[in-house]
Specification:
The complex is a heterodimer of chains A (335) and B (379). Chain A has two domains: 2-192, 3-Layer(aba) Sandwich (Rossmann fold), CATH 3.40.50.970; 206-334, Rossmann fold, CATH 3.40.50.920. Helices cover 39% and strands 19% of the residues of chain A. Chain A has twelve helices and 14 strands. Chain A has helices at 2-9, 13-27, 51-55, 67-79, 98-111, 141-145, 158-170, 222-235, 253-263, 278-290, 312-318, 322-334, and strands at 10-12, 31-35, 60-62, 83-87, 120-126, 151-153, 175-180, 190-192, 206-209, 214-218, 240-244, 247-249, 266-273, 299-303. The longest helix of chain A is centred in the first third of the chain and has 15 residues, at 13-27. Chain A is globular. The termini of chain A are far apart. Residues 1-8 of chain A have low confidence and may be disordered. Chain B is an alpha/beta fold and 379 residues long. Chain B has helices at 4-17, 31-56, 71-78, 96-99, 116-123, 157-170, 189-200, 248-263, 286-289, 295-301, 306-316, 322-327, 345-360; strands spanning 86-88, 177-182, 205-211, 214-215, 218-219, 240-244, 269-274. In chain B, the strands form two sheets. A five-stranded parallel sheet of chain B has the order 1-2-3-7-6, sandwiched between helices. In chain B, helix 2 (31-56) crosses helix 3 (71-78) and helix 3 packs parallel to helix 8 (248-263). Classes of the chains: A alpha/beta (335), B alpha/beta (379). The interface between A and B is large, with 42 and 42 residues.
């Protein structure tokens, strides 16, 4: 039964997150989890399942529907030496806690001249393609990337989900952590994850596919879209190099630069809407450091500048697609 | 202002909740405590007067939110706290930063409150400020001294204070948190979200509402639909006490009642302290505030100076002679009309030293502007 045993070790994205929470709660008695329905229910998606039974209601706190109070209370707990993981039931709801995040948590270290560090992770399910409509489909990381003092993380694989969540929990700064809910239970995206002290440090991109013709820079669910597009590009003899930045803040510019030095062409992809999305920031930086490296104007692929509509034909019309990424890369390559 | 009957009714509700608790903690104060309370009232008043004058001379940056006429709330709420209790003052509460734990000795370096000098260094925007003057005036704090850093978003400190209170519960500690806000901030979601959470978990959180009748240019009746702001407590099934904000001992008694209740794990309270804002919202608003408020309202609102209310009590209780009471009389006068001669010498000396310290401290260097966006590695 060794094959079956090995099979059992393979973890999906959600289980990887759950394991990370259990292991960190076990490791650090000062860690507290707060959020809506995270205790008795185990979380709307089940990421916090089992925590209440193991760690009790003072460390796994079922909070009232009060996102601002949840983040505010996390700040207060952190001021008393706790680490806190806050769950936003959907990352869309983070807007209800916006002030406490951007005006309070993000600026605390700065305002206190470094005396107050707030080790808080605000995590939650993000992204479209599930028919969630305008309030269960957002990918609003740009709001927080635009607020100095926050780290912003968006893993694309089970092992990164686990390793980055553990690193985020141990980080002394507030971190907004975007989980791709479409990947939570995806059957074809499972990985064996090393046991023990497995961490993925923040600020390090990874190359998901090597290639020499065009660099595709992305993160989150879009990594998988880009990899599919890269397969189709390969059929056209175009070798795309797919970079998963993994953390938006801090950003690993070096990996991007090294790749563009090789390919001299770049496509940037983010799932969020176009104007002031993080893809725009990536293009700005690439233009600043790499204008002379480029053999073609860079292109970005994003959601349209619309909310995310509910029914399938409308949702598909505005969100990035494998086709769209393929075409963008071909355009850059053929320039 | 509040009617006597409503005060009594709220007290009665409160008493039935925990009969054993004293509603007159003041009876345990020693004569020396009373004189210390008076000294603290003088100090808070003098600090405000001094800043008003410094601001008028153009020596200070930012906005001065005068605490004139509201000092009894600060002294009365803070006097009975333990050093390990926490507070979160707001913009109008500048004296709170040094009044906290002042009972442990004005010049005691180990006391759990800021020194007057540190607070002045902050007001003057100098490097010696506890936050190296990176944010203005009241946005200072100290984890060591139990003072929560606030932002300009009023009521935002209440969820944070609730988090600190939750940590006390988690750690099995019987400290309490006092958070301050004006009546206007009780309209914000954070007020309700924070108190709701605290009430659910019976957290040791006491919310002091300084009801000075005006939220910038908006009167209380356009901020709050209930007769008393304290009535907001009903929705959370917690005590909503009303204190006479001009009477330091009434504030003290109500605070200590709520504090003792919280220490016993009985949960949060709201204390509405009725008062009146003597000047504008900030010093930029002083002139307009004389126009958007009736002259009669202003006169009535300033008619019960907390220093004179307290002196009257002390004289009647024979804790102070009439002669001593008249020795220094900054009360019932406009800030610009009082001089150093109107305050006791120890109060003048405390401020003089603090201001000299602040003035002599250098400005922070420009390159500091780029530091501490994120936690820096241990140096």
């Amino acid at each position: 039964m060794s094959a079956a045993a090995a099979q059992a070790q393979a973890k999906n994205y959600l289980t990887a997150l759950k394991d990370a929470l259990h292991e960190e709660m076990e490791r650090d008695p000062n860690l507290v989890c707060m959020g809506e329905d995270i205790g008795i229910l185990g979380g709307a998606f089940g990421v916090t399942e089992g925590l209440l039974d193991r760690f009790g209601p003072l460390r796994v706190v079922d909070m009232p529907i009060s996102e601002s109070a949840i983040v505010g209370a996390a700040i207060g707990l952190a001021m008393r030496g706790k680490r806190v993981v806050v769950e936003m039931q959907f990352i869309d709801f983070i807007s209800c806690g916006f002030d406490q995040i951007v005006n309070n948590a993000a600026t605390m270290c700065y305002r206190s001249a470094g005396k107050v560090n707030l080790p808080i992770v605000i995590r939650g399910p993000s992204g479209g393609y599930g028919g969630g409509g305008p309030y269960h489909s957002q990918q609003n990381e740009a709001w927080f990337a635009h607020s100095p003092g926050l780290k912003v993380v968006c893993p694309s694989t089970p092992s990164d989900a686990k390793g980055l969540l553990r690193a985020s929990i141990r980080d002394p700064n507030p971190v907004v952590f975007y989980e791709v809910k479409e990947l939570y239970r995806k059957r074809d995206i499972v990985e064996e994850i090393p046991d023990g002290e497995f961490l993925v440090p923040l600020g390090h991109a990874t190359i998901r596919r090597e290639g020499s013709d065009v660099t595709v820079v992305t993160y989150g669910n879009m990594v998988h879209f880009c990899l599919k597009a890269a397969e189709r590009l390969a059929e056209q003899d175009v070798q795309a190099e797919v970079i998963d930045i993994r953390t938006i803040v801090p950003l690993d510019e070096e990996t991007i630069r090294t790749s563009i030095e090789k390919t001299n062409r770049v496509v940037v992809v983010n799932e969020a809407s176009r104007t002031c999305g993080f893809a725009g920031e990536l293009l700005a930086r690439i233009s600043e450091f790499g204008f002379e490296l480029l053999d073609a104007p860079p292109v970005r692929v994003t959601r349209a500048d619309t909310p995310v509509p509910w029914v399938k034909p409308l949702e598909s019309a505005v969100l990035p697609s494998v086709d769209g990424i393929f075409e963008a890369a071909m355009k850059v390559v053929r320039y | 202002m509040n009617s006597e009957s409503s005060v009594v009714a709220k007290q009665t509700d409160a008493v039935s909740d925990t009969e054993s608790q004293s509603l007159r903690t003041r009876d345990q104060l020693a004569p020396a405590d009373h004189l210390e309370i008076l000294r603290q009232l003088y100090l808070a008043r003098y600090f405000d007067v001094r800043l008003i004058k410094e601001k008028r001379r153009g020596r200070l940056r930012g906005t001065l939110y005068s605490s004139h006429n509201q000092e009894a709330i600060l002294v009365g709420t803070l006097f009975g706290l333990r050093p390990d209790d926490w507070i979160s003052p707001i913009h109008r509460d500048m004296p709170a930063f040094f009044l906290k734990d002042m009972r442990s000795g004005w010049n005691n370096p180990d006391r759990k409150g800021m020194s007057v000098a540190e607070v002045c260094a902050q007001v003057w925007g100098k490097e010696a400020s506890p936050i190296r003057a990176r944010d203005n005036w009241s946005h200072i704090g100290s984890l060591d001294k139990g003072i929560i850093y606030s932002t300009s978003m009023l009521a935002a400190t209440i969820p944070v204070a609730a988090g600190v209170a939750f940590a006390f519960k988690l750690d099995g500690q019987d400290s309490v948190v006092l958070t301050y806000n004006g009546e206007g901030a009780t309209a914000r979601g954070d007020f309700h979200e924070g108190i709701n959470f605290a009430a659910i978990h019976k957290l040791p959180l006491i919310t002091i509402i300084e009801n000075n009748q005006w939220a910038y240019g908006t009167p209380v009746e356009l901020e709050c639909p209930t007769e008393d702001v304290a009535d907001r407590a009903k929705g959370y099934d917690i005590p909503g006490l009303i204190a006479d904000g001009q009477d330091v001992l009434d504030v003290y008694d109500k605070t200590m009642w709520a504090v003792e209740r919280a220490r016993r794990g009985r949960g949060p309270s709201i204390i509405e302290c009725k008062t009146f804002r003597a000047y504008g919202h900030g010093d930029h608003d002083d002139d307009r505030a004389m126009r958007y408020r009736d002259a009669e309202e202003i006169e009535r609102g300033r008619s019960r100076d907390p220093i004179s209310v307290y002196k009257r009590y002390l004289v009647e209780a024979q804790l102070l002679s009439a002669e001593e009471a008249d020795r220094h009389t900054p009360e019932n006068r406009d800030a610009l009309q009082v001089t150093d001669d109107d305050f006791p010498p120890e109060v003048i000396a405390a401020l003089k030293e603090a201001v000299e310290f602040a003035v002599s401290s250098p400005l922070p260097e420009a390159e500091e502007a780029f530091r501490w966006v994120f936690a820096e590695d241990a140096e």
